Amino acid sequence: MNEKFSKIGFVLAVAGSAVGLGNAWKFPTLVGQNGGSAFVLLYLILTLGVGFIIFLAELSIGKLSEKDPVNAYYTLAPKNKRLWSLVGFSMIGAILIVSFYSVIIGWIVKYIYFGFFPLPKSIDESAASFGNLLSNDVISQFVCFTFVFVVIFYVVSKGVKSGIEKLNVWMMPSLFILLILMLGYSFSMEGFSKASDFLFSPDFSKLGVGSFLSALGLACFSLSIGVGSIITYSASLPDKTNFISSTINIIFINVIIGIMMGLIVFTFVFEFNGDPAQQGPGLIFVSLMNLFSNINPIGFLPLGNILAVVFFIALFFAGITSAISMIEPLTFYLINSYNFSRKKALVLIAFVVYFLGSLCILSSIEWSKDSLEFFGKSFFDILDFVASNLMMPLGGLFGAIFVGFVLKKEALKTLFNPYMRGIFFEIWYFFLRFISPLAVILIMAKQIFF
Ligand code: PHE
């Protein structure tokens, strides 16, 4: 991994890590569950005020050390090296994430397959078919999950650079074009204005107890921060890459994809009088299948089916490039610190991921779900909550404190100087030291005490 990315390869890899199911699946799901617009606003504020700031901090840690997360903190800390290196272990969070994330990509694989058959005719039919997959179809879930698992580990075993660069070059633009087409189509529906109201006219009374922490978790999740992915990729950041403009672009694409997905998904929810909060993790699948089944065939050409297949394939790749970036940090660490071969490191990680992923599947299946429920939550939800809402914000918080208070300001200034200086640098630095950490601490305190 010490060999550098090409300039464009780096940007694409980081964008590939960031853009994924966080935007396409988690964003609409959480927006639905948290009452819409006010949650969107909260997410946007936290993306800029916390996500963006910490993203640049993690990028600095990676670039200045050129090491895996644990060794990066160890190398850069002037004292208490061992203590700081513990923060690098937040990368374990990424292993938890990839375990349930691969299960979701597995659902996407199943939906690519569904695309070859007649599409559901109503939102109820569509919901029933997702419900069936989730709670009864253990075989499909395992087959799809295993397939995804093999693909991910195969790509990472080939080494990140060659594997990822090629995948991203065509994946991202095609996903974007498809979304624009689908948005255009949604625009012609009556549900569209309800969807944009739902997303854009803030109603703060709709925020629930957990909404703040969920929005923070989502902001971290969709930017891949707090679990070592950005540090790891930035360790191979080529010199003379304008990482500021790349970061701004990535954040912009990230937010836009979430909003576009939200508009499309909720248009179809409202069009068919569905309830945005009701479908849970199945929201995008249920709603999008209705969109596709509404598209009329052109002559013999089943346009809806074709679009469904192509769209879910694009989503599949968006997920894969993110999943890869979750496995790479720990792999890189095991190689660096224990002299493991890449293969040996991956076999070890693969065991853990397969085991946890299997438990996630079983935690939604009718006959096994009761034994995998703790504190009223499924194993899947617990994994998501612990990794996304606790480990990511905490990893990010310590990263911010480390860069803001432990690293020398001069070193950062030199690193940033060609791309961001003067007042902009100072504002970032101020946010990094005070505003972003405070926001994370307050939101966590709110969750615990209020
Ligand atoms: N950012 C990715 C997404 O939005 C998820 C991710 C989380 C990637 C953590 C890497 C590390 O889907």
TrEMBL record:
UniProtKB keywords: Membrane, Transmembrane, Transmembrane helix, Transport
Top-rank taxon: Bacteria
Compartments where found: Membrane
Pfam family membership, one: SNF
Transmembrane segments: 40-62, 83-109, 138-157, 169-187, 207-235, 247-270, 298-324, 345-365, 385-407, 427-449
Keyword Chaperone: no
Cross-referenced InterPro entries: Na/ntran_symport, SNS_sf, YocR/YhdH-like
Membrane topology, record value: Multi-pass membrane protein
Signal peptide: none
Keyword Transmembrane helix part of the UniProt annotation: yes
Matching PANTHER family: TRANSPORTER (PTHR42948)
Protein name in the entry: Sodium-dependent transporter
Organism: Campylobacter insulaenigrae
